[in-house]
Amino acid sequence: MFKIQTLNAIAAIGLNQFPREFYEISSDIQHPDAILLRSHVLHESHIPESVKAIGRAGAGVNNLPVKQLTKRGIPVFNTPGANANAVRELVIAGMLLASRNICQAWQYVRQLETDDHTLEKEIEQNKKQFVGFELMGKTVGVIGLGSVGVKVANAAIGLGMHVIGYDPTITVSRAWELSANVKQARSIDDLLTKSDFVSFHVPLTDETKHMINHSRLQAMKHHVTLLNFSRDGIIDNQALLEALNENKVFAYVNDFPYGLLKNHPRVISLPHLGASTKEAEENCAVMIAKQIRLFLEEGSIVNSVNFPTVETLPLNSGVRLSIVNENIPNMVAQISAKLAQAELNIQSLLNKSLDEIAYTVIDVNQEVEGEVLKQIGGIQGVVQVRKL
């Protein structure tokens, strides 16, 4: 019986992926095999020794101590692409809100206190202050061409916009999805100087923190609109405030309210609504549940942010060992030697590594006794051993 602890509300359609005859699921479960969460912050929390995997029903993992979990041999799974359509639609909505001054115009109408007889006349006299511009023919620069960025780029093409994309690490599969009409920027700076809108779709890392600073803001087109539905911290907020006050930046639409900016008349801040649709929450829940099941039951690793991808076939006979070890030489040979000493024949072996961690899945022809597992676990550099 596997035990799953939920630290946030996970859509029922996702939890139903776990057959109850094999899984126990609760928010206050003791000694869980896996933890499922969305926005719950684990940085200061105690993570039980029993935990073998953590699943984040969403893309970002800033709320998780990934480096600490990696050292403990715990893979962290996420759900890239499951909420991509929800974010894509919100980015397009953000461009329309900004370009047509919709929020300001709506607020203007709400505060009018005149009667219906004079309402139309007053509106006709004052509506000129909300004159906007059309998206068609404008250029949007998309930084980060992952699952969301590609969808945003293609949607903008459909609206008649010109699109420039930048992502030096774009995958082959994402490149195939990208419209042929999307132009490639030589660099971030090349993209920024040509774009009327800039949309960010990159994780927050040491490399992307304050990617947009004072000098880059000044190099942008006059009256550029910035859309940040990725992560707070990518843009230097103080530098952005200055650019807004100088009218260098026309508008800033974001999903991360910040005290310095949220009340600025040309800032539209939303309460982290990017993935807040019923469809996205259900997609994320189903996707993360399937990935956790595959890992616990078969040892497969799909969509982990800290472990290599290892896709296994179902085990028809014998026993499967799942082994996490430091990515150092001679580990597989030492593990194989322990199995040979126990007269266990290896039927198949998969081994992959990512940075400092290596992951090995070994199928053997018969039962593996606890003493053999103990010996493998005692090899210097082995972090975790699991028998499936």
Name the descriptors:
388 residues; alpha/beta; Rossmann fold; Alpha-Beta Plaits; 3 domains; seven-stranded parallel beta sheet; five-stranded parallel beta sheet; 32% helix
Task: Explain how this protein is built.
The protein has 388 residues and is α/β, with parallel strands linked by helices. It has three domains: 1-83 and 275-307, Rossmann fold, CATH 3.40.50.720; 86-269, Rossmann fold, CATH 3.40.50.720; 314-388, 2-Layer Sandwich (Alpha-Beta Plaits), CATH 3.30.70.260. The chain is 32% helix and 21% strand. It has a seven-stranded parallel β-sheet, sandwiched between helices. Strands 2-1-3-4-5 form a five-stranded parallel β-sheet. A four-stranded antiparallel β-sheet has the order 14-15-13-16, with helices on one face. The longest helix is centred in the C-terminal third of the chain and has 21 residues, at 278-298. It is elongated, with a radius of gyration of 26 Å. The model has no long low-confidence stretch (mean pLDDT 95).
- Shape designation: elongated
Number of helical regions: 13
Helix fraction?
A: 25-40%
Reading the helices and strands in chain order gives: EHEEEHEHHHEHEHEHEHEHEEHEHEEHE
Q: Distance N terminus to C terminus?
A: 12 Å
Reading off the top of the CATH hierarchy, the class of the largest domain is best stated as Alpha Beta
CA radius of gyration:
26 Å
CATH architecture of the largest domain: 3-Layer(aba) Sandwich
Give the rounded overall mean pLDDT.
95
Spatial strand arrangement across the major sheet: 8-7-6-9-10-11-12
The major sheet is characterized as:
7 strands, parallel
